[in-house]
Amino acid sequence: MSERAIIELKNITKIFGESPEEALQLLKKGLSKSDVQAQSGQVVALNDVSLSVNRGEVFVVMGLSGSGKSTLIRHINRLIDPTSGSVVVNGRDILDMAVEDLRTYRRTEIAMVFQNFGLLPHRSVLENVAYGLEIRGVSKPKRRKTAFEWIETVGLKGYENSRPHELSGGQKQRVGLARALAMDSEVLLMDEAFSALDPLIRSDMQEQLLDLQKKLKKTIFFITHDFNEAIRLGDRVALLNEGELVQIGRPEEIILQPANQYVVDFVRDVNRARVIKVGAIMGKDETTPCEVAVDQSASCEDVLPLFATHDWVGVVNEKNERVGSISAKQVISALARHQATIS
Ligand SMILES: Nc1ncnc2c1ncn2[C@@H]1O[C@H](COP(=O)(O)OP(=O)(O)O)[C@@H](O)[C@H]1O
Ligand SMILES: [Mg+2]
């Protein structure tokens, strides 16, 4: 296991049904998910999925409904055992864990945020946020203090004594997030956590998560069916189609080099100007004289206005060292690739 990897899924295949062995054999012969289902009546939810998540990154799994996303995330908290393959978290194979070990693992190493919030209706916001700590046996004063802090962090100060039914969808999910963060576990699992929210609220939540993550540097395994959400949030994004991994990469890699037509179809609707980073498309020459410079993590959208008054813009790294330069032509051609849209 590489030093940076915290979650390693290796060759995970999951078949739902009475005779997974039969389905496995058919898969090995190269039959598709639908052919296996037609011949054996077994559902192939995941087919030979391998991926590793680095410590401190936001790793997004994106795919249409039924592509196997929830099945995948449930392997990490071991609500599901694979038909074949292994799940290693923090260097330990969680499939080998005994009951007690597994319980401790779930209470301390991972925390989950659910799509439907999963709040206890008769408990206050404070009690909901403190709930996981209560289960863990943390004393009442300590868990109240921790809960208060996280409620404030997610912007719900003053709502400590409210009940879930008094809150909007966005507020409920802030409670869900605060409850997960209060667990202080290194890994946060989020299965379509923002999918039930209205677009504007959802965008706010995305922004808040990114803001929090700058400070917290958790490992976040985030599931979504929304490509724009995936590329906004993900340090890396994995695309799942019919239980198979189609592509893994940084957002700009996926947008600039989509692996196949399935990915191209998602990429088409994306605002590339906002996603493609200058560092991914700049020229590497450091000698062209430039009067202005931008950071390599700036987006095309950020840099475009500068070309009104400059032919070339320098590019610098986080230490403010010159690493390249970029022209309007380079930006336009990057955006034009694969029928780009600038909105
Ligand atoms: N408990 C189950 N029993 C049988 N089939 C299941 C079960 N859970 C999921 N599936 C099937 O596995 C596939 C993947 O489902 P799921 O992981 O829920 O997809 P997603 O979360 O991407 O919508 C689907 O075809 C779904 O019908
Ligand atoms: Mg799902």
- Physical arrangement of strands within the biggest beta sheet: 6-7-8-3-9-10
Give the name of the CATH architecture of the domain at 55-74 and 98-109 and 185-270.
Answer: 3-Layer(aba) Sandwich
Largest sheet: 6 strands, mixed
Strand content: 15-25%
Tell me the radius of gyration.
22 Å
| Small molecules held by this entry | adenosine-5'-diphosphate, magnesium ion
Our measurement of the CA-to-CA distance between the termini, rounded to an integer number of angstroms, reads: 42 Å
Query: What low-confidence regions span 5 or more consecutive residues with pLDDT below 50?
Result: 338-343
Total DSSP E strands: 13
Short description:
With 343 residues, the protein is of the alpha/beta class. The protein contains 15 helices and 13 strands.
Could you explain how this protein is built, in words?
With 343 residues, this protein is α/β, with parallel strands linked by helices. Among the domains are: 55-74 and 98-109 and 185-270, 3-Layer(aba) Sandwich (Rossmann fold); 273-336, Alpha-Beta Complex (CBS domain Like), CATH 3.90.1280.20. It is built from 15 helices and 13 strands. The strands form 3 sheets. A 6-stranded mixed β-sheet has the order 6-7-8-3-9-10, sandwiched between helices. Strands 2-1-4-5 form a 4-stranded antiparallel β-sheet, sandwiched between helices. It has a 3-stranded mixed β-sheet with strand order 11-12-13. 37% of the residues are buried. Bound molecules: adenosine-5'-diphosphate (ADP) and magnesium ion. Adenosine-5'-diphosphate is lined by residues 16, 43, 45, 63, 65-71.
